[in-house]
Design goal:
Elements: E1 3-12, E2 15-25, E3 30-34, H1 41-48, E4 56-61, E5 64-65, H2 71-76, E6 79-82, H3 94-100, H4 108-121, H5 123-127, H6 138-150, E7 156-160, H7 168-183, E8 187-191, H8 195-201, E9 204-209, E10 212-218, H9 219-224, H10 226-233
Parallel strand pairs: 3-8, 3-9, 6-7, 7-8
Antiparallel strand pairs: 1-2, 1-4, 4-5, 9-10
Helix pairs in contact: 3-6
């Protein structure tokens, strides 16, 4: 297994956001976490990235204790987050945003080849390479956020609500590209409000409620689960 989370607890003061979460992502997998707003999904991703400190529990990635590392070292280990809301640098150009993704890389020749790889996935970014990021559409900004993460050469990509605020045709385009990224050998942990799309994309899934994992299984099984259908699929 690549990522193992064991009995993770996170609190915001007196508010318990995560209550003993345990899950795993095997190397080469796409795993999704679904749940309603406030379930703790984003808190979980931020804990994996070192943005929010854990209260107790264990987070390991390929044997490395992520809970003991600052965020920049977690990124350097190959675990990279694409945050909810994209959080791109609005006043910088597309190229500058992408180059910031390679801040921990040294060889300029490799950085250039990685830029070309990003442009293979997102040709529209190459067309807008000199534009300020705040002139991009919402879909283009999401592409830029994913492209910036790819510049790190991630081994595990943490995606938090990649479809948020996007038109349906753009959502399908983004998810098609995510599958192509996965086929290049990148493991993915996907947080997604669109439960049907998430479960159709991932091999396995977890359902979160009030900071706990209440259900887990293969995606096909969860798609057929009557509780999941009623609560998340509108069936």
């Amino acid at each position: 297994m690549s990522l193992i989370i064991n009995n993770l607890h996170v609190s915001y003061g007196a508010i318990k956001a995560l209550r003993g979460v345990s899950l795993h992502v095997d190397e080469g997998e796409i795993v999704t976490i679904i749940g309603s707003n406030g379930a703790g999904k984003t808190t979980l991703v931020k804990s994996l990235s070192g943005v929010i400190p854990k209260q107790s529990g264990k987070i390991t990635y390929k044997g490395l204790d992520l809970g003991a590392l600052p965020s920049h070292q977690i990124v350097a280990s190959g675990v990279v987050q694409v945050p909810e809301g994209r959080l791109i640098f609005q006043n910088l150009t597309v190229r500058e945003n992408l180059e910031l993704g390679s801040y921990c890389r040294k060889k300029s020749s490799l950085i250039q080849s990685d830029l070309e790889e990003v442009f293979n996935f997102f040709p529209r970014l190459k067309e807008r390479i000199k534009q300020p990021a705040d002139t991009l559409s919402g879909g283009e900004q999401q592409m830029l956020a994913i492209g910036r993460a790819l510049m790190v050469r991630p081994q595990l990509l943490l995606l938090d609500e990649p479809s948020l605020g996007l038109a349906p045709n753009l959502v399908q385009q983004i998810f098609k590209i995510l599958k192509a990224i996965h086929e290049k050998g990148v493991s993915i942990l996907l947080i997604e409000q669109d439960a049907f799309l998430a479960l159709r994309t991932a091999a396995r899934g977890y359902v979160m409620e009030t900071g706990k994992i209440i259900l887990e299984g293969k995606s096909g099984e969860l798609l057929q689960n009557s509780d999941v259908k009623r609560a998340y699929l509108g069936v």
